[in-house]
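Sequence of Heat shock protein CLPA (Ajellomyces capsulatus).
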Amino acid sequence: MREKYESEKQRSKDIQDAKIKLDLLKVKRDEATRSGDTQTASDLIYYAIPDVEKRIEQLEAERARVDAELSIQPGGGGETLLADAVGPEQINEIVARWTGIPVTKLRTTEKDRLLQMESHLSKIVVGQKEAVQSVSNAIRLQRSGLSNPNSPPSFLFCGPSGTDLICLNIKKDIL
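Predicted 3D structure, token representation.
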């Protein structure tokens, strides 16, 4: 396990170092071009930069080959231990650990919240189907940018006491 981790780490480090070297060579090429040093600029353009780009391609192909070999390995160790980029899943897990908010709550996007708003409000506000539907539709229109931005939706909640109209008014602010 340790050996696998070290080899993955070294491959990633080699690719990263090659990319840094490529960036430095491109900066030197630009400086040589600006200063009029055509000999250095042409050496960089036609020899050094293509060599480093070829090396990066080889390293990435090597990493892809090793990853493919690991994925078909029958021993269960089919996944890589290191990731080259941080994705939304990793960010959600860390924020969930820090805040104590469940990961599923953090994963819901604005689109998902808007689509599920009516069913969520219907669980809380009972017997007010038309009011929940009107509020949900107005909020969806407002958040999607289809309504007039200078005229936000406004509602007049009427009805006998105890019908959760105040609760609906409060819940729409939370969403």
